[in-house]
Each structure stands twice: as C-alpha cells, then as structure tokens.
Amino acid sequence: MTRKDAPDCGFTLVAVLFMILLVMALSVYLCLLLANESTTTSSLDSELYSLILAEDGVEYARSLLPHLELNQLLAGLDGKHSGTSTPQWRNPLSFELARGIAPDTWSPTCDDGWPASNGSLLLPSGYAAAGGGRFYIRFSNNPTESADEDRDGVVLIRSMGVTAANRSGLFHSSRNNVSLVEASFRQERVFDLPAALVLFGEGANFEWPSEGFEFDGTVNPAVEAVGSSQMIDSFLTSLAPGQGACFPGAGGTPSVRDSTASYMASPIYRRVFDTRFWQHFQEQLPAFTDPHQPGLCFYANGGGITGSFQGFLVARGDFVASGASIDGLVLHLGGGRLTLGADTHIRGAIWMSNTDSDAEGNMVHQPLDLKVLGSVTVVYDAGAVRRSLTLLPPTQLGWRILFPEMKL
Amino acid sequence: MPKNKGATLIEALLALAIGWILFMVFLGAVSPVQSLAWDLSALHDRDSTLCLGPPLLCKLISPAGNNRPRDGCLEEAGVLHVRSDTDGSNGFPDGDLDESYEAISIRRNATDLQIKSGGGSFQPVFRNVTGFDADATDPLLLRLTLGAQTDKTRIRMPETEPVQVSFQVYLWNHRRNLFEENP
C-alpha cells in the first residue's frame, strides 16, 4: 500500500504520541508535587530547628554574660566601636546574608559585640550544632544608652539560628532557614563591693577584740558606709584607742569612706535603696542556691560555717563563721548578729544591711550587729569579688522573636 | 477510488471501542487505589493541621509577656489571650500593644481554630479542629492540646477517629529572676 492509497495512515501513531504526551505530563506533575511536598516538609523541619538553635544561642549568651566586661565586649577586639550606620548592625548577620551564606565558611567582618576571650573571638564561625545548623550571637548596648558605652549593665543579645540549605540532590534549595531571637539581659554587679566591709544603714553595734584582727582595704577603703553619715559615726565611736590601725587601706587610718552619694548616682548601685529590691532578692534566693563548691549559699535562718568556702554566701539571722577560709563575698542581711570567730580569713568583701519596710513601703533600717572574735582577717580582693559575682545569673528583662519585616 | 475506502472509519471505531474497554478496565483497577488516595489525602490534611499547628502557636505564644504587660498569657472561658509588647515605631517595645500580633486571642469556634489580633475580628487559621485546650496553671509552661478531624467522609477507612496532639510552650518572659527587673 502506497501513501497515496492510504491517506489516513498514521492516525494510530498520532494517538499513541498523544497518549505518551499525556502520561509524561502526568509524570511531570507528580514529580513537581513530590518536590513541593519534599521542600515543604524539609523547610518546616529546618525552620523549627533554626528557631531552636537561636534559643540555644540566647542560653549560651546567658551563661557567658556574667564573665564579660561589657564595654570591652561592645567595642570588640579592636577596641573601637564601628558605629551604628550599617543596617541591622545589632544582628550577627543580616537576614539576607544569613539566607545565602555557606555556614561552614562564613566569618564576621566586624567584631563589635562578638564575645571574645584572651584576644580571640569565642565563636568566629558561630556555634556548629548537629545537622549542619549554627547559631551566631552578638551583643549590643540597650537602645536607651549610646552604642559604645554601657553604664547600667543592660545589654541586648541577638542570636541567629541558621540551618544550612540542602545544596545537593534532585530538589535542592539554595536558601538557608533563619530565625532571630533577641533577649535583654542585665549583668548583675550590684554587689561589686568597693571595700573590705560595706555597711548599709544608719547605725550598728560593733564588738571588736582588743587586737589580732584586720580589715584591709589594700588600695581601696577598708570600710565604706552607705545610707547615712551616722553609720560612720557609729563605726568610729566603737573603736578603742589604737584600733584604727586594724583598718588599713585608702584614705588614712582607719580607712573609712562614705559612699552614699556614689551609690545614689550609679544606675547599678542605687537599686539597694529600694525595698522591693531586697524583698525580691530574699524571696527568690532559695530557688537559686547552689550546693556545689564554689556556689551560691543562703542561710535563711542563721547558722554557721567552718572550713573553706568559695563563692557567694548570703545569711540572715545569727550567723557565725569560725575557723573559716572564705574566698568571695559574704552578705549578711540582718535579722541577727554576724560573728567572725577565731581563725577566720576572708578574701573578698563583706556586705552588711538590715532593712525592712514600713506600712507605706518606705525603707526602714534596723541596726547592724557585728562581732569579731580573735584573729580575723578580711582582705579586700576585687578579683575574688568578681569571681563570686559570676555565680549570679543575669536578669532577663525581655525575650522576643524578630522577623525580617520588623525594624531591625 | 481506493478499494479500501471506509477502513479508516472502521479502524477508528474499533480503536475507540477497544480504548473504552481498556479505559474501563483501567478505572476498575485504579478505583481502589483512588479511594485509598482519597482517604490518605483527607488524613494528610488532618495531620498537616496537627503538624503545622504547634510550631505556629509556639511562635505566637512563646514571646508572651515581653516588656511586662499585665497578664502575658491568660486562659479565660475557652479563649487564650496572649499579650506581648514586642515592637514599636523604633523597632523596640514602646509600652503599648498596638502593633500586629502584640495582643492576640486564640479560640476554637465550631470546627475552626481562630485567631484575633488586636481589635480585629477572629479569623480562621486551621479548619476541622475538634478541640483546643490551654492549661495555664504553670506560669512558666503553657500546656496546649489541639485536636483535628478529617474534613470529608472516608471511603475505605470510615471509622477513623479524631486525633489530638499535646505540647508545651515555654514562656521565656515568665522565667524567674534572682533580682527584680524594674526596681
């Protein structure tokens, strides 16, 4: 049969071709559907993971903050703040950059606010977590202060969680998933004491032994009074002739200074004049105490200590330290007498206060009560004080998730 | 005129008839698969709600209480109210709750999970929801239960029950501090 004889020959071929086209179109549709589902599923997982990583970064920053010098941190390793002109300068990375980077090879160009230790960044390439994700953290000053100088101890931490895009396979994506969390923390330095013995109140009962004890302020005063000049009078009148030599330190013998004005002027220290500060602190202390050494110990109903202790010791009521070697801070919050017994040696500082509130909520000072027995030495050591302060968790003032649509 | 004129028409009719028979056989074979796919699609929709609901609610709820508005997270008569001052004109909390999603309410109305932002009206977010329960007795950990059902009658699995998922949302701003936040 010639072509001329069978003009409709080939119809079946066309029909088959149409069928093949139909089947292929269906296959392509199914493939695209599968790809879409696969991308959606992996994107959801990955996005959740990036949020969890960002939260982890905030927790990392929380544990790091008590150990950091804030103004050095804000300036970065080069000691100079690079300004606030860059968009999203508070973020470790901009959202656009974070979506496109290869997390394994990226490192920051500006070191402002990136935590560092011994001259090198702690997380120069972020923290590498399981599954190819990373978090990056950056500190910046709170917006009520200038960007390069902190005075109140409040800083913002922005933590960005980045989960790497799947850059291989049939249905790969080139966009990382990114989440950004911001927390506002206050580093707690209210008990960064400036003297070997700090007395907060309006009067006190002191009992000193005739000799063999010493409160040494080294380059700082031995005794500082906060609250009222009556405290200094009370202290000075308690000393027998010649006992002033037991209080060496800056500013003469006995080395004593009234720090009320400087406490009032400081955004960090002036909180001690608020009754709510003391009320909250004592209410929350039991939940934060730590039985480990070094640790944060609270004797709510008095007691005693012997042997060595390192850390932050808080006591109320009658408390006796006898034959004790303490490295750090001792806070006695009244309600009884603080007794420093024989062979007690403290390297750090002591704070004493005995506050209460009246019916209107105003602060009322009760007399302090300090008894020193036998050979006692209290030597001011700023390093020991700072080390004990690292046991205090930062106060969290805020926590929020940031989105690219917001003003960053 | 060719001798076999009309053969093409007969061929076409035969092809159509055979094609129809083949198509019916194909449909007969595929039908069970199709009904199963129908059921699976319905179950997938239900499970999607249970899968996507928790992360969405977690993102909306976990920042509750930022900048300390009163009652950051409060459950009242089946409606969960979440308040958080998270944004302002300068990009920081500004002391009020007038930005989007700073004051939201979440409830179940019939088979819809609805969310209201600020002074707006409730809008459905998930459909075919059979239950939404919030337990705010722990100030730090909000316990949520979300239930969902399929939206169409199943053919091969008609007895499928509603499914629920329980999860907890950590309220970061309700974390306790040793020192007072605003002395």
List the main descriptive attributes of the protein structure presented here.
heterodimer; A: 408 residues; alpha/beta; 2 domains; 12-stranded parallel sheet; 5-stranded antiparallel sheet; 25% helix; 30% strand; elongated; B: 183 residues; alpha+beta
Summarize the structure in words.
The complex is a heterodimer of chains A (408) and B (183). Chain A has 408 residues and is α/β, with parallel strands linked by helices. Helix content of chain A is 25%, strand content 30%. In chain A, the strands form four sheets. In chain A, strands 7, 8, 9, 10, 11, 12, 13, 14, 15, 16, 19 and 20 form a twelve-stranded parallel sheet that branches. In chain A, strands 3-4-5-6-21 form a five-stranded antiparallel sheet. Chain B has one domain. The relative contact order of chain B is 0.16. The chains are: A alpha/beta (408), B alpha+beta (183). Chains A and B meet through helix 1, helix 6 and strand 21 of A and helix 1 of B.
Please indicate the percent range of residues of chain A in DSSP E strands (runs of 2 or more). Answer: 25-35%
Q: Assembly type of the shown chains?
A: heterodimer
Question: Which regions of chain B are unreliable across 5 or more consecutive residues at pLDDT < 50?
Answer: none
Q: Mean pLDDT of chain B, as a whole number?
A: 89
- Number of domains in the coordinates of chain A? 2
Strand and helix order of chain B: HEEEEEEEE
In short:
The complex is a heterodimer of chains A (408) and B (183). By secondary structure, chain A is of the alpha/beta class.
Topology summary:
The complex is a heterodimer of chains A (408) and B (183).
Chain A: H1 11-64, H2 70-75, H3 95-100, E1 116-117, E2 120-121, E3 127-128, E4 133-141, E5 154-163, E6 177-186, E7 197-200, E8 204-207, E9 213-216, E10 223-226, H4 229-238, E11 256-258, H5 260-265, H6 275-288, E12 295-299, E13 303-315, E14 319-332, E15 338-340, E16 344-353, E17 355-357, E18 363-365, E19 368-372, E20 376-380, H7 382-389, E21 395-402
Parallel strand pairs in A: 7-10, 7-16, 8-19, 9-20, 10-11, 12-13, 13-14, 14-15, 14-16, 15-19, 16-20
Antiparallel strand pairs in A: 1-2, 3-4, 4-5, 5-6, 6-21, 17-18
Chain B: H1 7-61, E1 73-76, E2 79-83, E3 103-109, E4 112-117, E5 123-126, E6 129-135, E7 141-148, E8 163-170
Antiparallel strand pairs in B: 1-2, 2-3, 3-4, 4-5, 6-7, 7-8
